[in-house]
Specification:
With 84 residues, this protein is of the alpha+beta class. The chain contains two helices and three strands, in the order βββαα. A hairpin with a 4-residue loop joins β1 (3-15) and β2 (20-31). It is elongated.
Length: 84
């Protein structure tokens, strides 16, 4: 009877005008090749996020969608919010 606990990337989504990246991480407990439980954790990354600690799959998606135009638009949007 071996019980293991794994962390998996369950889903990566790109949403919105500013290309936010939403990440769902699944924590899975398995006993004798049968899943006993699965819990979800979600977090969101903005185009100015530091992604060095993210999973390589997440980094690849971020690097693909966060073009310089996207980063510049996000910076401009944030600057405009400070004026409010």
């Amino acid at each position: 009877m071996a019980i293991t606990k794994e962390t998996q990337i369950g889903k990566i989504e790109v949403v919105g005008k500013h290309k936010f990246v939403q990440v769902r991480t699944d924590t899975v407990v398995i006993e004798d090749n049968e899943e006993l439980s699965r819990k979800y954790h979600r977090h969101t990354l903005a185009p100015d996020a530091v992604i060095t600690d993210e999973h390589s799959e997440v980094q690849s998606v971020c690097n693909a969608v966060w073009t310089q135009d996207v980063k510049d638009a996000w910076t401009t949007f944030k600057a405009g919010q400070q004026d409010i």
